[in-house]
Each structure stands twice: as structure tokens, then as C-alpha cells.
Design a protein that fits this description.
Length: 459
Amino acid sequence: MNQFDVVVVGTGPGGYVSAIRAAQLGLSVATVEDDRPGGVCLNWGCIPTKALLRNAEVVHLFEKAADFGITIDRFQADYAAAVKRSRSVADRMAKGVEFLFRKNKITLFPGTGSLTSKNVVEVKGEDGASTLEAGRAVILATGSEPKSLPGVTIDEKTVISSNGAVRNEAKPKSIVVIGAGAVGVEFADVYRSYGVEVTLLEALPRIVPLEDEEVSTQLTRSLSRRGITIKTGAKVSAVKPGGAGAVIDTDGGKLEAEQVLMAVGRGARTKGVGLEALNIALERGFVKVSPTMETSVKGVYAIGDMAGAPLLAHKAMAEGVVAAEAIAGKSPRPVDYGNVPSCTYCRPQIASIGLTEAKAREGGRELAVGKFPFTANGKAVALGDTEGFVKVVADKKTGELLGVHIIGPEATEMIHEFAVGRTLEATLEEMMHTIHAHPTLSEAALEATLAALGHAIHI
Ligand code: NAD
């Protein structure tokens, strides 16, 4: 039996970050991985989809070359080449994790890990089983997998998940995307940019339903303008083979398409990890954890998607740091779940933090709401990218930043000034006194803050 201070099962953003942090704190660390290091995020999720979305953006720039006085007679966008580029980006990032493991003297055991007792992990690899003993703790970080609808099998041919979508080098002629959360709208963007007929179905009354209502309205307008058919309040009840590939039954009638992308959410990977034998408590399908990420069994920690919402890589990383520091005997500051930015990388991009305006109103307090459109921002006009706005929701009396919602160019980069502001408990006035360089997109953030205070300058 190999002995380590910590054994980490799963090397996605939660697992690999916790392993590195534990090693930095002087602990000996083993990791167990049944795929490539980096997990879903680096190999099949966040990173390869961002590469595909970058391709989509480049296609878009070529299409509007004439706006910049550039004449392109004919250009061809090769979808298979986009997928190949995306795969090489993912490979490079996975190799980066392997490098970081070597640098931090972290041992990687390929195979499937499961707990046989609270401090023993059995690794079933291709070349036989090995057993690892954790002196101090085990960190479970096995992530999540795409969900489907009852009775619908994801075959990754006609009915695909995001896993199939990032791998398939062939694009369909038509696709129905079921679910308009982050996965749904990001792939709708990629496919539409490459000329696919896209229908986006959402059971709830609006797309990206967790975002502020005005963001949903703007995104609906932008995606519709690009030729994506959007149907909301369209709950899918069945998907069957037929027609061009699949027939989709919704509340509002039948649709057909060559392919269907199932984007109805992800479920925690909790099976086969040994949770049942140890009686590790679950809560609504996710592992129940303490503020230091410890499960109901002392010495066993769970982080990332398997430990609950939000299912985001950066939340997993933050939890990984907390778990590693707790195991090393430090007193880490627990993750602030109310201050996790949410980013969706479709065009226009969406980023938000804190409460939507509707949620903030539920508290009954008086709000100061400021909005600034990118059409009035010099840098956005110069870039030729003016769709969207920044919206700031604050408490009128105290100036507390309750929520910020950005849709538009580089929204996913811009959100962080508000994340820092909220961490430091900055008020609207303090944000206002922060000089923003001119010309930048970030000036729209300053102007939205000024608008909430009632005196935006450039509108
Ligand atoms: P999601 O839960 O965000 O969205 C799923 C959507 O499907 C919901 O809006 C839901 O109402 C809808 N839906 C469910 N059943 C339906 C039905 N029968 N018919 C029609 N619509 C239906 O899930 P997702 O987009 O699959 O993403 C999974 C997870 O991965 C999420 O937690 C998401 O935050 C995360 N993720 C994040 C990013 C990012 O941060 N950019 C990208 C991809 C995924």
C-alpha cells in the first residue's frame, strides 16, 4: 500500500487545485484520474468550448470584414478544423496540469478511485488494482456528467451531449438544442456561426433563466437576429428517432432536426466512489459538506460539482483551496457562495454576480439601479461591438452592491471589478471614485455605477 498525506480522487479544476495547494503546504499528495488530468473542464468543457467559441467569433469578424473596409471575396470556415484546434487547445492545457503535478511532486495514479475505508482509496487501472492510504484525508472531486430527459438515451450520434458536441468534427445541417442555460446558448452560438439551422428550446419562460430578466431579453434579441429560432415555455417531453434524424415533442408541438443537443443540466458523479459503504450523506443528489468541505465522515472531503451548486470550475477551485488548507491545519476562509461570478461565453457574452433586480426587490428594500449601454461607450463603438449593457443593482440607502449584470463585449472579463468591489464591501460611491482608464469597455461599468447614483455622464 502506498502512503500519502492526502489522496485526491478526480483531477478537474477542484481536484488538481486542491492537490497543488496541499503540496504547497508540505503534504505528500496522490491523485487518481480515470481520464486525462484536468477533468471535464480542461478536456471536454470550459476550455475546448472557449476554443470553439473563439472560432465562431473569428468567423463573425470575417463576415463583417466589409464594415472595416476589408474585402474578402470568399472565405470558407472548416468546422472540422475548428474542432481539431479546440482539441489541441485542450491537450495543451491537460499537459499543463501534468507539468504542475511534476513541479509540485504530486503522484498521478491513472484509474478509477473508490473509497474502501475512510482513508483507503482503491485504484482500478488497466494494469491491475493498486491501493493508496491517506494518512490525513481523502478529497473527492469526481465532478458531474450531462443529464438527459427520462426515456431519452444520449447516443452521441443523433442525441448528443456537450461531450459529443466538443468531439464531433461533423456538423449537422440542423440541430435542436434542449435547454437554454450556459451549455445550450454557447453551443447554439457555435453551430449558428457555422451555418447550422439552430432551434433553442427552453422550458421556462425565458432563456438563461437564472440571469437578470433584461439580460435574457437582450440575448433573445441578439440570438434571434442571428437566425437562431428560440422557443420558450417549450418543455420537451420526448425525443424519438424519425424525420431528418430526431423528432422532438414539446408542449407547443413537434419539431424535427438532424441532431439534438441535450443541455438540460448536469448531475453529480457520486456512483462508484464508495460513498454508500461509508454512509456519506447526500443532499438532493450532491454530497453534503461543511464550510471546510468535509463530508459527514471525518477526514473525507468533497469539492466541486459533486458537492453542489453552482456547478462552476472557479467555485470548485475555491473549494479545493479551502479543503487543502483545512487538511493542513489552517483556518481557511469558507467560500462565499453569494459572490461567485457567473459567465457565459456566447456572443454577446454574459457575466453576473450577486442578485438579479427581481431577487433584490424581493427583500422589500429600496434599490438604486443604473444601466449603461455599450452603444454609448467609445471603445465599444471603436471595436464595432456595441450590443448590450452594464446594469448595477444597489441598496439605495447604503450603496451596497447587491448585483451586477453585464451583457456585451468582454463581459466575462469586466465582471471582476465588481467581484473585488463586493469582496471589499465597496459602496457605489467608492466604485465611483475609482478612476477608469479611457477609452475602455470598463468605463461602461463606471457609468452604470454613476447611473445608479443618478448622474451618468455619457448618456
Ligand atoms: P442549466 O441547468 O444551466 O440549464 C439547463 C436548462 O434546461 C434550464 O434552463 C432548464 O430550464 C432547461 N430544461 C430542463 N428540462 C427541460 C425540458 N424538458 N425541456 C426544455 N428545457 C428544459 O444546465 P446546462 O446549461 O446544461 O449546464 C450544466 C452546468 O454546467 C450548469 O451548472 C452550468 O452553470 C455549467 N456550465 C457553465 C458554463 C459557463 O460557466 N460558461 C458553461 C457550460 C456549463
